[in-house]
Amino acid sequence: MTGPGGLPEQSEPGRAGAPEATASGGTAGPGRSRGHPAPSEAPAAAGPASAPPVAAVPAPGAPAPGLAGALPPAGFAFVMATGIISTDAYALGPAWLSRVLLVAAAGGFALLTVLLVIRLWRYPRAVLADLRAPERTFGFFTVVAGADVLGVRFAAAGHPVVTAALAAAAAVVWLALTYAVPAGLLLARERDSVLGGVNGTWLLWVVGTQSLAISATALAVSWAAAANWLSVLAAALWGVGIVLYLMLVALILLRWLTVPMTPAALGPPYWILMGATAITVRAGAQLLAFPPGLPAIGAVSGLVSGFSFVLWSFGTWWVPLLIILGLWRHVRQHWPLAYETALWSVVFPLGMYSAATFAFGHVTGLAFMEPAARAMLWVAVAAWAAVAAGGLASLARLARGPVAA
User: Fold this and answer.
1) What is the per-residue pLDDT across 170-194, written as a single tens digit (0 to 9) for each?
2) Per-residue pLDDT, 67
3) How many whole angstroms separate alpha carbon 181 and alpha carbon 272?
4) Burial of 1 (0-12, 13-18, 19+ CB in 10 A)
5) Distance in angstroms (rounded) separating the CA atoms of residues 223 and 229
6) Contact 369, 361 (CB under 8 A)
């Protein structure tokens, strides 16, 4: 299977060649470490043993051939991770790194957009199956966040028209997903409970929402005449994102405490627990940077300042726990550490933590935050380089073809 930018990924639950989802929300199949057998499953119906092979028609939800067919719902996470580090480097340096990553993010966004359009056109049943799968459907919010993160970087470079176009497209996608996804889970789910499908990708709903708030604040800087209504929009989206975070974290903790935890289920997207707090703090910092005379800002400034500091603290608290969970998965449970698209959902929170820490420290005068932001920027750069190298190595293996047994 391929990931963002045509890079192959190791696995994705619910797709061909990936571990199959179990009733507990974990997975079974290739990659499971010894000593962790998969739960028993009903055998699939099979035809006579002597039946000749025939050309298979992809089942709904199965990845179709080619890059577009294999594009995962969360494929735009590459753009999110690359774009936010470019924005960090624009503010903190070096400038050359910011420009290189901007080119990579813009190129990746263009390629992924083309692949997504092809997938929607040629494989609508597979897209519909992704939308109906609770463990994958929230991945589509990376389209929203990717467009907004890239647009904000263009705004910093002095291209607000590009920012507005990307934000408008992101808003349309967000409006469609923010009602269609929960409505589908409530009214058209295929099983009694979707709790086993709850994972870190659900928090991409928060990330997409707050990314729109940040886009609104970025546009207000360039278009002062529209600052009043853009401030209202940004404050409203920030508030929605706060409530969504509290609600979704409660669901994730409920899933952790009631559904058996497996190494397969405890994947990289849980880093969005920290990333969602970081982007909320970044959006809050952008709101606090508005002129205080705007009515919407005057109404919420105290709440935004206090809640943003609380969420920054909570996001910082998440980091050691997420590292512990990762060590349990890969060291204690021997889950293989190899490239997969989901690894970009680790890089993005690291970059966003740096951006949020710098922005909030600057607007509130908390001087200790700038050194912390600079340090985290290089952690994010190292993570980006490692994941990109893994993706390129995976692509090279794919180009060489399968190795004979």
Assistant:
1) 999 999 999 999 998 888 776 778 8
2) 79
3) 19
4) buried
5) 11
6) yes
Q: What is the DSSP letter of 72?
A: -
User: Residue for token digits 């800087």?
Assistant: 221
Give the residues across from 27 on adjacent strands: 21
Q: Share the mean pLDDT of the chain.
A: 85
Average pLDDT estimate for 291-307: 89
Q: Are 74 and 4 in contact (CB under 8 A)?
A: no
Structural contact between residues 263 and 333, judged by C-beta atoms closer than 8 angstroms: yes
Beta carbons of 341 and 394 less than 8 angstroms apart: no
Nearest Cα to 136, choosing from 221, 72, 53? 72
Rounded (10°) CA dihedral 230, 234, 237, 242: -170
Going by C-alpha positions, the residue among 264, 284, 275, 404 that lies closest to residue 340 is: 264
> Exposed e or buried b for every residue in 204-216, given b needs 16+ CB within 10 A?
bbbbbbbbbbbbb
**Burial state string for 244-266 with b = 16 or more CB within 10 A and e = fewer than 16:** bbeebbeebeebeeebebbbbbb
How far does CA 209 lie from the centroid of its chain?
12
The Cα–Cα gap between 236 and 230 comes to 10
Percent of residues in the chain assigned helix, strand, coil, to nearest 5 = 70, 0, 30
Burial zone of 365 (CB within 10 Å; 0-12 exposed, 13-18 middle, 19+ buried): exposed
Greatest CA separation found in the chain? Answer: 79
Question: Residue 36 CB: number of other CB atoms within 10 A?
Answer: 14
Helix (H) or strand (E) holding 377: helix 369-400
Ramachandran angles phi, psi of 124, nearest 5°: -65, -30
The pTM score is 0.83
Give the Cβ contact number of residue 22 at 10 Å. 20
Quick one: angle between helices 204-222 and 272-288, nearest 10? Answer: 20
Residues in the chain: 405
272 neighbors 244 (Cβ within 8 angstroms): no
Pairwise CA distance, residues 218 & 231, whole Å: 10
| Beta carbons of 215 and 145 less than 8 angstroms apart | no
pLDDT digits (tens, 9 = 90+) for 348-367: 999 999 999 999 999 999 99
